[in-house]
Design brief:
Number of domains: 2
Number of strands: 14
Low-confidence stretches: none
Strand order of the largest sheet: 11-10-6-9-8-7-14
Largest sheet: 7 strands, mixed
Structural class: alpha/beta
Distance between the termini: 39 Å
Strand content: 15-25%
CATH superfamily of the largest domain: Dihydrodipicolinate Reductase, domain 2
CATH class of the largest domain: Alpha Beta
Mean pLDDT: 97
CATH architecture of the largest domain: 2-Layer Sandwich
Number of helices: 10
Helix content: 25-40%
CATH topology of the largest domain: Dihydrodipicolinate Reductase, domain 2
């Protein structure tokens, strides 16, 4: 399977490209980027050609693409890739509007190509074990969830609303909402959100608290804030405390790490060990592309998670809960 990376605007592009390079049944055919200098640097690092013409990245010999552009550019790239007959792995959030997300999914269906949303947290061993425990009834009936996806403020286009669609809420809500849907098989029915800009001088929010009600009366809270300082040892976290009638399940998706006191960096760093979630996700996508079968994380999954983030913005604007 020959793969093209469409844009290195998102930092995850680098780890996804490395995962393709390590996959024995795939080839990183080329990079394309709206920023030619960045695209050439990526091509140099990964030992593949850089193409300036998007049509060259969608040539017949390319079987699949990974879209890691700014959020607002996902739709145009995905629609063009689908019409060119390419299987698609698209970075989260799926888009910045429901209409764009729906157009992406419709284009893939019309072209008969597979479309997967990049939610690598599903591949974290603690999350997989938690799902097995929940399905086995280990903590009884789930009553509530307290979750976090706190991180450092990423800067760049992430804090420019025209490209990102929003701030911390748009960036971080979707990961945890997707995990809740996957772990419990329940949809979010209403959202109440409060958000503000407290840590940085930005045009978008950098902190928030979401309270969500799920089908069956379960409620969940989420802190998706960019509340970690630049010197924090890692980019952030994904944690979930799941409360049931027979016990509580604690999930730390990225808790497997070592602490490195790095004199060169002049700070402590957490170095992850164990499974590489990006590599596992990319390998799953490539298998589905080769076999032309529906991926485990669909475009619809991406759309449902993004919808909750958009409901959070609507709730914060109105000052009241918003129902789907």
């Amino acid at each position: 399977m020959r793969v093209a990376i469409l844009s290195f605007a998102h930092m995850h592009a680098w780890s996804y490209a490395a995962a393709v390079k390590r996959n024995p049944e795939a080839e990183l055919a080329c990079t394309w980027d709206e920023d030619p200098d960045r695209g050439r640097e990526a091509a140099r690092r990964f030992g593949c050609p850089f193409v300036e013409d998007l049509d060259a990245a969608l040539a017949p010999e390319i079987g699949a693409v990974i879209i890691t552009a700014a959020n607002a550019h996902h739709k145009d790239l995905a629609v063009r890739a689908a019409r060119a007959g390419k299987h698609i792995l698209c970075e989260k959030p799926l888009a910045t509007t429901l209409a764009d997300g729906e157009a992406m999914i419709a284009a893939a269906k019309a072209a008969g190509v597979q479309f997967m949303t990049a939610f690598p947290c599903r591949y974290a061993p603690p999350v997989i074990r938690a799902r097995a425990a929940l399905q086995a009834g280990a903590i009884g009936e789930v009553l509530a969830i307290r979750a976090t996806n706190r991180g450092r403020m990423p800067g760049g286009w992430f804090v420019q609303k025209e490209f990102s669609g929003g701030g911390a809420v748009m960036d971080h809500t979707v990961h945890v909402v997707d995990l809740i849907r996957w772990l419990l098989g329940r949809e979010v029915t209403s959202v109440y959100a409060e958000m503000a800009t407290r840590f940085q001088d930005l045009e978008v929010e950098d902190c928030a608290i979401l309270t969500m009600e799920l089908e069956g009366g379960i409620f969940a809270t989420l802190d998706p804030s960019w509340s970690r300082p630049p010197v924090y040892p890692t980019w952030g976290d994904v944690t979930m405390e799941i409360v049931g009638t027979r016990g509580t399940l604690w999930v730390d998706a990225f808790g497997q790490n070592l602490t490195l006191y790095n004199n060169r960096a002049q700070k402590a760093q957490w170095i992850g060990f164990g499974s590489d979630v990006d590599e596992a996700m990319v390998a799953d996508f490539l298998r589905c592309a080769r076999e032309n079968r529906t991926p485990p994380i669909t475009g619809e999954d991406g759309l449902r998670a993004m919808e909750v983030a958009l409901l959070a913005y609507a709730s914060a604007a109105r000052g009241e809960p918003v129902t789907r």
